[in-house]
């Protein structure tokens, strides 16, 4: 593939929030997940797991859980300064409700042997700082993110439109119960997908000079 072809693919992909009332072939979603599995991942552990939800009742349950959780948070007195932002998050439940299919992204819980090594030295400042640095960088989360990005590009090539959402994680417990996600998995992201019913313009992007520091 020539670079200009790849550049066009990356720049033409959009986050889609409106879809046609048309079922998405399960095989297309499985193919996107398969390709996501080829993305770089920490230690090739592939510690993620994906759930495909195309049942309309389940989709509505998930959407309602997200909306209810956001309305609960919006009702807190401390949330008054954030009402505008929270209203947008409440609308995310409505977005999900209309999606033909959802892909839930999870990764396996539990610590690595290296984590246990660091835990064995709770009074060692170097060990504590290293553990905190690893917690913030979170290899499992990075691996899942790489898979998601590959999936979004695959969906776009298939003529599908998807949306990478982390907001629904605010209703993590409720969604895990609805879907039946076991305790050894953590729900971390949600991707509604379908045939696009909109063609949003490309939002502005920062110039490469704004997001890059070159050390010479």
From TrEMBL:
Residues 10-195 form the Nitroreductase domain. Pfam families: Nitroreductase (PF00881). It comes from Formimonas warabiya. InterPro entries: Nitroreductase (IPR029479), Nitroreductase-like (IPR000415), Nitroreductase/BluB (IPR050627). This is Nitroreductase domain-containing protein. Gene3D superfamilies: NADH Oxidase. GO terms for molecular function: oxidoreductase activity.
């Amino acid at each position: 593939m020539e670079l200009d072809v790849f550049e066009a693919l990356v720049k033409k992909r959009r986050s889609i929030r409106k879809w046609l009332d048309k079922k998405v072939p399960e095989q297309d979603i499985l193919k996107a997940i398969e390709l996501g599995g080829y993305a770089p991942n920490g230690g090739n552990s592939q510690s993620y797991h994906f759930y495909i939800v195309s049942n309309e009742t389940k989709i509505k349950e998930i959407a309602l859980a997200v909306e209810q959780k956001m309305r609960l948070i919006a009702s807190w007195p401390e949330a008054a300064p954030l009402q505008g932002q929270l209203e947008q998050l409440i609308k995310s439940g409505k977005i999900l409700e209309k999606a033909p299919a959802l892909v839930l992204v999870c990764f396996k819980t539990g610590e690595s042997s290296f984590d246990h090594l660091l835990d064995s030295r709770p009074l060692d400042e170097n060990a504590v700082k290293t553990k905190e640095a690893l917690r913030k960088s979170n290899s499992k989360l990075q691996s899942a993110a790489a898979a998601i990005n590959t999936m979004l590009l695959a969906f776009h090539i298939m003529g599908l439109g998807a949306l990478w959402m982390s907001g629904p994680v605010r209703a993590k417990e409720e969604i895990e119960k609805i879907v039946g996600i076991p305790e050894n998995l953590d729900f971390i992201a949600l991707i509604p997908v379908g045939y696009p019913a909109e063609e949003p313009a490309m939002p502005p992007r920062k110039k490469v000079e704004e997001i890059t520091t070159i050390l010479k």
